[in-house]
Specification:
alpha/beta; Rossmann fold; seven-stranded parallel beta sheet; three-stranded mixed beta sheet; 12 helices; 12 strands; NAD(P)-bd_dom_sf; NmrA-like; NAD(P)-binding domain; NADP; NmrA-like_oxidored
Length: 287
């Protein structure tokens, strides 16, 4: 590594978020190391000399074999390990933590989403560490636009346990757009450190999403609202997990991605070139 180069550590470099972040930053000449978030000591070793760290956990690993409570505990513990290790790195200048809004606070206690809970515990830990907080950007990544290819999304028919005017804020294609946001955040530390950034390409209602799919594919399509129990019966465990998130968005609507402080968006960071839903749909083959 040359004097001019800076070491970036990307956690989850083979995943959807970390993978694209690492590729985008590597193209700029950044040297990277991989780290395991299960062992704080190995994380500290992997982080040595890091100028910046991009940290993300994986709630979904073992989703079908572990209890929801167990998954929350594992994610919280791994995320706190990442934060503890990062706080010990004297060279660290910027820490991006991929997290989510406080759904319980936003909804006045009416909604609790399991795959949000562990991340929020890590948020709390970071905010109690003043030194680490002074180097941290909290990155909220919107709904993956690529989820349209999941088995839960049936071509010609979109079934969700919410009304068809429920707004969904999407990051578009996370495989590309997450890296665009990561670069913008790292390149503008004076703006992004200590702040929340929302990685999103657009907001569309559930009805608008299925209409867009119909327009792009040239096929008829419709939206049907089902109950949360019905949705969970169709897609055991996955249905309830995703359904709870959708119902949160339905209830709080435009407040879904808000906090007590202003949230930075693509406009604040002068971001362009994002891959949106229409382009995702156009790139897929629909039989």
């Amino acid at each position: 590594m040359t004097k001019e180069s800076k070491l970036l550590t990307v956690i989850g470099a083979t995943g959807i978020q970390g993978g694209d972040a690492s590729k985008a930053l590597a193209s700029k000449g950044v040297e990277m190391v991989l780290a395991d978030w299960n062992d704080e000591k190995t994380l500290v070793k992997a982080f040595e000399g890091s100028y910046a760290i991009y940290a993300v956990t994986d709630y979904w690993a073992g989703f079908m074999t572990q209890s929801v409570e167990g998954l929350i505990d594992i994610e919280a513990r791994q995320g706190i390990n990442l934060a503890k290790a990062a706080s010990q790195i004297s060279s660290l200048k910027h820490f991006i933590w991929s997290t989510v809004p406080d759904n319980v606070k936003i909804s006045g206690g009416k909604h609790s989403i399991p795959h949000f809970e562990g991340k929020l515990k890590v948020d709390e830990f970071i905010r109690q560490d003043r030194d680490l907080l002074s180097k941290t950007t909290f990155l909220w990544v919107g709904y993956y636009g690529t989820n349209i290819i999941l088995p839960m999304i049936v071509p010609n028919l979109l079934l969700f346990p919410v009304s068809d005017d429920t707004p969904i804020t999407t990051v578009g294609d996370p495989r590309v757009n997450t890296g665009i946001y990561a670069l913008a955040i790292f390149n503008q530390p004076q703006l992004t450190i200590g702040r929340i950034v929302l990685a999103q390409s657009e907001t569309k209602t559930t009805r608008e999403i299925i209409n867009l799919w119909s327009q792009v594919s040239g096929k008829p399509a419709d939206y049907i609202q089902v109950s949360l129990d019905h949705y969970d019966n169709l897609w055991p465990k996955w249905g309830r997990e995703i359904g709870l998130m959708l119902q949160f968005w339905e209830t709080v609507r435009e407040k879904s991605w808000t906090a007590d402080e202003p949230v930075l968006t693509k406009e604040h960071l002068n971001i362009s070139g994002l891959i949106e839903m229409k382009e995702i749909f156009s790139s897929l083959e629909w039989s």
